[in-house]
Amino acid sequence: MFASLFVVILGFCTCSKGSSRSTLGRPEVIGPSEALVNSIIDFQCELKIYPENENILLQLIKKDNRDKLLGESTSLNGEVGTIPMVIAPYHEGSLECVAKAQNNSNIEPTVSYTHYLKVVEPVEGAEIAVRSGPVDFFEGKTLELHCELIAGNHVSYEWLLNGQHVSQSPLHHVADNNLLINRTTSKDSGSYMCVATNHFNKTNFTSSSQVMITVKDVVSIPDISFTVLKEDSHNYSAEVTCQSTKGTPPVTFSLYNRTELVANITIDERNATFKVPLVLGQHLGWLQCQANNGDRTEFSQWIPLEVVPVGGPVMMHYDYDFGENYAVIGLRFYCKAAKGSLPQYRWFLNKTLLHDRGSFYKVVNQPPEQSILLLSVGRSSAGTYHCEVSDSFDNTSSKSSNWMYLNKEVLNRLRVSVVAVVFGCFTFLVVLVSICCLLGAMFRRRQYGGSSLLSLEMRGMGAACEDELDLSEYNEDADLETMARGGEFDQASEASVDEWPQIKEEKKSWRMNQLRDPEGSHCS
């Protein structure tokens, strides 16, 4: 047994000694982890454990789908193998060093750990391509820009609009060298710049390009209005204005009277003015503005070409606001002319023209319907008021309202009418209730006025007979008292004191008949 164990140990030792002479250690790649394109770099392969007097082949390999040999060197007795390279972009990746014994097939090749090499190619020749189409277009379309490079890798991109950084948003999609803007507006117009950057060590490489993009606003629906110009005492004209609040100039404005083109003009503004002959008091057709700046035509509403001069009576009325103790503290005057297309209102206090605003008043014009004068009631506002209305285009003649004098005392006396109305209503209710009561009394008197007290009592006694009442419990005095207090008699029909003896005698006779003939006709 011991002999066998000795043989095994001896064999193990022999194998170990043979292995030390014929086994290669793992090589190591020595070189930079980052290199610039076209630079010359010496990579080294080093063996820590190597057999003596063996020629070792060291190879530098780029690992990918197909291993690519980048260079090789030989080493004797552990010499470091040097492999020079001119760096190219394709050198980037995982590098390995393979060590092989050249003349001894019994020695197994060994491979180093992976060494990653980053190759930097400076950016060059940035250029922006507009993939969405023309650089000049109308709002609402999509803008797509692409930044292209002649050379460069490991690049970061930045997009600028008029020098400002373009950030990611729901409508702005920034993805490296692509910029996409959906539903563009005129705010997206300007100079777009693509800045491409990479760096090696502490050196930055930059290349940029820019393009001018114009996003035009579509012209908005134009507004149409006109003013009247007085040429002389008998001739007038209408100055028609067409105006759009939005739209990139130039804009072409056209004025139509029904289907007839009156005039058109192309202008670097968003408004245009046309002059049309006018006859006061006559309807001369319907006007419409059309606007177009290259995308589509927009139409205004139709307005009548008619101007009615101010005429008819000028009406002025007012209402007021109450404060504490029902005192009038605020007043509103209203002024309106019976007719007139373009009226101009003026307010006067004691023949003095009131301007737009004063210490106690404010004028609010609502043409053409009316004008309102707001007053704060006080000592300053006392006086005589009236308004005048004239044509806004010709103030040589005007129409005046009635004149009205007001002060604080006069206004507060207006409350008497309110008191009179309330008092009248109260008096009417009192009279109405009194009439109802009188009619009720007359109705009851008419219903019971034809029957004497005796007949009423006999009806009551007959009802008592039907209920089999005990008549012995009644005495004359008690019966008389009951009759005097009975609620079924109306006070208006009560008998006088002189009738009481007769009533007593009749009642006594009636009771005697009841005692003689209890089953008689009185109780049938």
Describe this structure in words.
The protein is α+β, with helices and mostly antiparallel strands and 524 residues long. It contains 6 helices and 35 strands. It folds into 5 domains: 19-120, Immunoglobulins (Immunoglobulin-like), CATH 2.60.40.10; 127-216, Immunoglobulins (Immunoglobulin-like), CATH 2.60.40.10; 223-304, Immunoglobulin-like, CATH 2.60.40; 311-413, Immunoglobulin-like, CATH 2.60.40; 453-523, no CATH class. Strand 31 (361-366) and strand 32 (370-376) form a beta hairpin. The longest helix has 34 residues, at 415-448. It is elongated.
Topology:
Layout: H1 2-22, E1 27-30, E2 34-36, E3 40-47, E4 55-63, E5 68-76, E6 81-86, E7 93-101, E8 110-111, E9 115-120, E10 127-130, E11 136-138, E12 143-148, E13 156-161, E14 164-165, E15 172-175, E16 178-181, E17 190-200, E18 203-216, E19 223-230, E20 236-243, E21 251-257, E22 260-267, E23 271-278, E24 286-292, E25 297-299, E26 303-304, E27 311-322, E28 328-339, E29 343-349, E30 352-354, E31 361-366, E32 370-376, E33 383-391, E34 394-400, E35 404-406, H2 408-413, H3 415-448, H4 453-466, H5 476-485, H6 500-516
Parallel strand pairs: 2-9, 11-18
Antiparallel strand pairs: 1-3, 3-6, 4-5, 4-7, 7-8, 7-9, 10-12, 12-16, 13-14, 13-17, 15-16, 17-18, 19-20, 20-23, 21-22, 21-24, 24-25, 24-26, 27-28, 28-32, 29-30, 29-33, 31-32, 33-34, 33-35
